[in-house]
Task: inverse folding
């Protein structure tokens, strides 16, 4: 008889007219890692957020440790031993790491009205070192941390209360190898202590390896709950999508690219972590950039777009210097950031405004007069082309699923018909169905003679999609690979160290 | 039916109509409570005249506030611009020169602030705070011995010809054209929504922010002109509540102080009418001016709290 830590029965949740969860039953056993898997918008995060009491269910019965459980707030759920690492950014930039870690719990360090910041920072340092993090300190300002480090702070916060149930919502895909190790060590610790983990991921291989049980959601309903011995990748994919997905969705061709150099970086050094890098991007080429998280590859993407100041060297596009995003855009360069919600989209406004913003100089009647009619066409064409699932073009971006948000980030640049696309982790946090579409679009762009810089943390993606791969190590080019069957993940990883 | 109503309430159309509905409801309410006196032609004219100065400045301010920036020196800059206008009149005895000089003066003041901001990499909010203190000091020190004025008889023909109204109408048409029918408004709103993303989309932040302060300064210059026509004089404490009135007008008409796509160019006019109408109606009901200020302050706070309220949950994810 399984020993259940948490039981959710007949959970319903609607957002306006959209039904996010429709009678979901979900049980988490003690001492087990339970995976939640499904397409973008299938209801995984909604269910996780309901368990963490970030959302309230419209209907449903919850039992924790055998007793009826009705927390009124995330704080109450946290006190009851249910911690959630949310999918979106869960830290406040303008305060210290310690203040983020103990947000809502300052009274633990207060003496009357005065909070003892030193004591709090020391406690934060202890928690961080207990999970194996030595490069982040309680006294650091959160704004000084990169996205991965901020996620690690969120992880530390989630485990600071020694929870019985740890929920990680698409956490691993943001983390580097080192960060993943920290997370997976924490999962192991939970299991050893007869506690539980619920993990949400789009990485089926990772889910199959980590989890003891997998619950698959589609359109707000559970399509199956599988135990480890029942795991089969193709079966899981078809349960997720509702149709067969081919094993490989990368390009299989060996198409050549042009000789014309469209973007050139010459001996460029950033003020941060890139040193004397020179590279060339050719017409119709997909150039992969790989490396460890701190290798400087994300900075390199911004340097190519003119968004990162250079200490020396230059970036040129068709003979003109790229020294700011304005010039980059004017030269037909697009940049899709890894940090989608902060750098690629204005999430609080609607889909139309986000797509139309790249066309304010083209959707005009004369030089200055703006055409609302042209704007409408500009936006609707992309919504249709990328099959963005919206009720109307005025839907808020924040209400969309991760995959659809990413499509909006693509759409704003596709609408402008750019010649060069710098894509930093373009498939981060999106499901295999959308991934397949993204790869198809990338290949179409290549066929149209457009050039792509693909910055990626997934080796298989780099190998599968790139014509050439440049590996960065400590801010310098470590090695270059040309597309061939001989390029393996082992070779790429070996060149990173 | 309930779902249709809910959809309409959530729609952009309702959001746009709401300030107008509030204005209509407020007018009807005061008309009933004052036994129709609120709706008399004389009173309506009085409200419109009072609202004109605020509306001119607030219409220009929408450009600044939509980009998420602030200018809290609008009132004090208007007063100093009025002083400059009166000085010009004293030298030239020409009203056209007075108005043109006022506009040039306000543009000059704001251009200096923008230049300093770019030169010293200082935030405009900090700079306009300093500007406000500086301008208030000038007004207090220079006018300590008495008010400055131009002969009232010279402005009477302009009052009779409704020149401030014509100025507001012309400025509003130009502002609406620039805001809604050129890329300027869209770019400013996007900057207000997400500055980092706007920068990484290739929008020239400095250019648009500078432009927004320029448009704002034109509104201030015109506001100063309307002030001269209405009052023909300025004292050490004149226009002390002007800045608050302008911000209140924008907020009352639904333009968020944090900027973004909810900003509306007409919020300056509608908000000025609501703000002045509210004060006028309450005065007619016998409420003292101090209490009116308190009521306006409370209203301002209520709107700020309700528009900047954190959602109950993280952003909603639709199941699509």
Result:
């Amino acid at each position: 008889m399984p020993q259940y830590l948490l039981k959710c029965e007949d959970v319903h949740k609607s957002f306006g007219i959209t039904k996010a969860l429709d009678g979901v039953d979900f049980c988490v056993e003690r001492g087990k890692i339970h995976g939640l898997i499904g397409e973008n918008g299938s209801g995984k995060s909604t269910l996780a957020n309901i368990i963490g009491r970030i959302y309230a269910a419209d209907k449903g019965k919850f039992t924790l440790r055998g007793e009826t459980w009705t927390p009124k707030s995330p704080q109450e759920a946290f006190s009851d031993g249910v911690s959630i690492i949310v999918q979106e950014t869960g830290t406040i930039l303008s305060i210290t790491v310690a203040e983020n870690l103990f947000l809502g719990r300052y009274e633990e360090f207060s003496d009357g009205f005065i909070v003892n910041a030193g004591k709090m920072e020391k406690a934060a340092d202890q928690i961080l070192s207990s999970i194996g993090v030595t490069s982040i300190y309680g006294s650091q300002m959160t704004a000084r941390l990169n996205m991965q480090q901020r996620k690690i702070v969120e992880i530390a916060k989630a485990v600071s209360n020694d929870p019985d149930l740890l929920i990680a919502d698409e956490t691993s895909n943001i983390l580097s190898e080192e960060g993943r190790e920290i997370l997976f060590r924490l999962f192991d610790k939970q299991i050893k202590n007869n506690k539980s983990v619920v993990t949400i991921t789009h990485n089926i291989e990772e889910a199959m390896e980590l989890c003891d049980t997998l619950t698959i959601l589609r359109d707000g309903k559970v399509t199956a709950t599988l135990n480890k011995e029942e795991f089969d990748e193709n079966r899981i994919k078809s349960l997720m999508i509702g149709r067969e997905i081919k094993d490989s969705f990368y390009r299989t061709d060996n198409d050549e690219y042009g000789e014309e150099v469209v973007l050139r970086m010459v001996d460029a050094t950033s003020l941060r972590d890139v040193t004397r890098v020179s590279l060339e991007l050719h017409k119709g080429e997909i150039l992969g950039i790989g490396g460890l998280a701190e290798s400087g590859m994300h900075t390199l993407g911004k340097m190519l777009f003119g968004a990162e100041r250079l200490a020396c060297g230059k970036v040129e596009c068709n003979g003109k210097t790229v020294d700011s995003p304005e010039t980059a855009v004017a030269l037909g360069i697009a940049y899709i950031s890894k940090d989608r919600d902060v750098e690629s989209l204005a999430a609080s406004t609607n889909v139309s405004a986000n797509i139309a913003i790249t066309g304010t100089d083209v959707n005009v009647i004369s030089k200055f007069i703006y055409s609302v009619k042209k704007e409408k066409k500009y936006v609707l064409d992309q919504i249709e082309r990328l099959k963005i699932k919206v009720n109307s073009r005025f839907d808020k971006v924040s209400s969309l699923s991760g995959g659809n948000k990413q499509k909006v980030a693509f759409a704003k640049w596709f609408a402008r018909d750019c010649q060069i696309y710098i894509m930093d982790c373009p498939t981060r946090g999106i499901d295999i169905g959308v991934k397949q579409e993204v790869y198809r679009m990338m290949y179409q762009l290549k066929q149209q003679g457009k050039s792509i810089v693909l910055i990626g943390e997934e080796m298989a993606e780099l190998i599968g999609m790139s014509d050439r791969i440049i590996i960065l190590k400590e801010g310098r080019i470590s090695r270059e690979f040309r597309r061939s069957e001989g390029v393996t993940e082992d070779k790429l990883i070996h060149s990173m160290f | 039916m309930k779902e249709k109503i809910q959809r309409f309430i959530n729609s952009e159309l309702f959001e746009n109509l709401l300030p107008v509905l509030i204005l209509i409801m407020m007018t009807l309410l005061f008309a009933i409570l004052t036994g129709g006196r609120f709706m008399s032609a004389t009173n309506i004219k009085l409200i419109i005249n009072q609202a004109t100065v605020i509306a001119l400045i607030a219409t220009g301010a929408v450009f600044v506030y939509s980009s998420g920036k602030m200018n809290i020196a609008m009132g004090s800059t208007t007063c100093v611009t009025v002083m400059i206008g009166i000085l010009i009149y004293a030298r030239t005895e020409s009203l056209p020169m007075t108005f043109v000089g006022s506009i040039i003066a306000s543009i000059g003041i704001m251009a200096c602030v923008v230049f300093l901001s770019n030169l010293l990499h200082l935030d405009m909010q900090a700079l306009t705070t300093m500007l406000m203190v500086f301008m208030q000091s000038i007004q207090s020190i220079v006018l300590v011995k008495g008010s400055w004025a131009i002969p009232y008889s010279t402005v009477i023909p302009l009052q009779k010809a409704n020149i401030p109204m014509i100025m507001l109408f012309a400025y509003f048409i130009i502002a609406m054209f620039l805001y809604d029918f050129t890329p300027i408004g869209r770019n400013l709103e996007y900057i207000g929504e997400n500055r980092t993303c706007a920068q990484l989309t290739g929008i020239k932040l400095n250019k648009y922010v500078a432009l927004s302060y320029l448009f704002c300064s034109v509104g201030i210059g015109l506001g100063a002109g309307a002030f001269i026509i209405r009052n023909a004089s300025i004292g050490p404490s004149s226009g002390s509540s002007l800045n608050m009135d302008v911000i209140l007008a924008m907020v009352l008409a639904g333009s968020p102080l944090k900027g973004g796509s909810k900003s509306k160019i007409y919020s300056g006019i509608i908000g000025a009418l609501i703000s002045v109408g509210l004060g006028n109606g309450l005065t007619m009901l016998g409420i003292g001016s101090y209490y009116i200020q308190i009521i306006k302050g409370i209203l301002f706070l209520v709107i700020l709290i309700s528009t900047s309220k954190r959602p109950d949950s993280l952003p909603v994810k639709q199941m699509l």
